[in-house]
Amino acid sequence: MIPVFRPYTTGKEIEYLKEVLDSGWWGPGPKTREFEEKCAGYIGTKYALGLNSATAALHLAFKCLDIKDKEVITPSMTFVSSNHAILYCEGIPVFCDIEPDTLNIDAEKMEELITANTKAIQVVHYGGRACNMDKIMAIARRHHLFVVEDCAHAFGGEHNGKKLGSIGDFACFSFHAVKNLATGDGGVIVSNSDDWYERLKQLRWMGITKDTFNRNIGQYSWFYDVVEPGFKYHMNDITAAIGLAQFEKLEWMNEQRKKWSDYYSENLKGVGDIELPPIKSYMTPSYHNYVIKTDYRDDLQEYLRKNGISTGVHYYPNHLFEMYKPFSMRLPVTEAVWKRVLTLPLYPALTNNEIDLVINTIKNYYNNRKNNSN
Q1: Strand 71-75 and strand 92-96: pairing?
Q2: Residue 326's CB: how many other CB atoms inside 10 A?
Q3: Residue 360 phi, psi dihedral angles, 5° rounding
Q4: Has this prediction a pTM greater than 0.90?
């Protein structure tokens, strides 16, 4: 089977891992710090803090914002961790509909959802394509709201020349195995706030005032204080070493993703009823995924599977899950469009033969439909 996603590795990952394994320091330490500095410099923020997932990053962002019993405007068309993070902090998700073409949160529908109890807006850059951040930040400033960027798909993406993650109050990135930069698992939270950075360092390590690595710098001191109930969310040097190796080829990997995305668009334009993913003038995507829309989604998916091609559906809307029914509301665009989305294989090591097989199989499917209807 041709997979939907596949991580890309070279010998560097093993080389850097061996350095860490041989060093005897496997926990959060010098490699984690080096990786954090690279992330902050690349994204363009003052701080980046390595964590064990983007879910942890989102949780800590909302923890810092103190959203208990407060409303957070958020999309439903996302992986559930985006909205679970709101619930972890006892916040209230208020679902906003999406743009039918980009599948991003619709800024035009956002303002009507704001109440006196609204504390924040969460945006998800779907597939690494930027939300309309100029409009969203203007709304947030007008109503004195915080903005959290869910950048799980967006490492390397830009909005009007600014890296995604450098625009909101917090941004949260994922380094899961299928992401643009993959460490197996892992994440990072970025911010420009000195105060939030200091608190985040404590929250990611059980509320402890001084982590193990810092206690070993200079003269060892075992003592630390615990100031609040934190979490065991920190990154470690094993994960960071993989991330540092991935950083060295990030631009090439994202260029490959763009190359294959453009190739799909050139060859699938005008095929059947397929709608291609758009690129707005303010977007420089990270090309995390390639999602088409078709009324024959389920039938096409099965046809591709029988021909050795895996596909995905991203996503089943959160507000339709049983546990989110107390927060559910009518989202006509989301409810219509999710039934039409199909994620095609996209990863840096995709070959010409593989992508041609995907394209030709899709064309064969529509030709068969046309012939059978005649």
Answers
A1: parallel
A2: 8
A3: -65, -35
A4: yes
d(CA 20, CA 32): 11
Tell me how many domains the chain contains. 2
d(CA 1, CA 151): 29
| pLDDT tens sequence across 217-233 | 566 667 789 999 999 99
Residue 361, number of CB atoms within 10 A of its CB: 17
The one catalytic residue in 31, 163, 179, 201 is 179
| Spatial separation of the C-alpha atoms in residues 2 and 21, rounded to whole Å | 33
Of 198, 217, 247, which residue is a domain's last?
247
- Does 4 fall in a domain? no
Domain of 271 in residue numbering reads as 250-373
Contacts 24+ apart (CB under 8 A), 37-42: 38/244, 38/247, 39/173, 39/188, 39/190, 40/190, 42/163, 42/247
| Bridge partners (DSSP) listed for residue 293 | 275, 341
Spatial contact of 37 and 187, defined as CB atoms under 8 Å apart: no
Please tell me whether residues 208 and 260 are part of one structural domain: no
Choose among 126, 119, 85: nearest CA to 103: 126
Please tell me the distance from the alpha carbon of residue 53 to that of residue 187, in angstroms, as a whole number: 4
Q: What is the structure's pLDDT at 219? A: 60
Q: Which of 247, 279, 301 is the last residue of a domain?
A: 247
Strands 158-159 and 146-150: unpaired
User: Quick check: helix, strand or coil at residue 9?
Assistant: coil
Q: Which residue do the tokens 């941004």 mark? A: 171
CA dist 157 and 167 (Å) reads 12
Nearest to 173 by CA among 314, 61, 68, 312: 61
Instruction: Tell me, yes or no, if 249 is annotated catalytic.
Output: no
